[in-house]
Specification:
Layout: H1 4-16, E1 23-25, E2 41-53, E3 60-73, H2 81-95, E4 113-118, E5 123-125, E6 132-143
Parallel strand pairs: 1-2
Antiparallel strand pairs: 2-3, 3-6, 4-6, 5-6
């Protein structure tokens, strides 16, 4: 059995400590509602889960999903917002990287989490035509 709040809160703490975010909250806000002074900002959104049963009588095996939203603003007309966003993406990836010994990122919850990792297309808007850069980073959590 898994305890979702323990898993999501641990994932959140890992992401929020990845870099020096001016604002960080599990409650998602739209980038238009986050002022430049509040950025760089990190938010997380839970996207539900997928349940499977490997054989009759076996426990449910869960895959949980979350998205990290990173917002970066550049008021400098000579500094592309992507130049602020890219190191934040690298820091989040590093925070979620697996142990070099085991190759697994279990969030420190081995009794509930088999592996947590960035999975799928990372959506970005690098702020080419403005001052705002945005990234949405999908994460999958394979549960025991």
């Amino acid at each position: 059995m898994i305890i979702r709040e323990s898993i999501y809160s641990t994932l959140w703490e890992l992401g929020a400590s990845a870099a020096q975010f001016t604002s960080a909250n599990r409650r998602l806000r739209h980038w238009a509602d986050v002022t430049p002074a509040e950025q760089p900002a990190l938010f997380m959104s839970e996207r539900g889960g997928h349940a499977t049963v490997k054989k009759l009588g076996a426990s449910i095996v869960w895959t949980l999903y979350a998205d990290f939203y990173i917002y970066a603003h550049s008021s400098d007309p000579y500094l592309a917002p992507a130049a602020i966003l890219n190191p934040l993406l690298d820091a989040l990836e590093a925070a979620l990287s697996p142990s070099p010994v085991t190759g697994i990122q279990n969030l420190g919850l081995p009794q509930m989490v088999q592996h947590a990792y960035i999975s799928g297309k990372v959506q970005t808007d690098e702020g080419v035509l403005g001052d705002q850069a945005i990234a949405i980073v999908p994460v999958e959590i394979l549960c025991a």
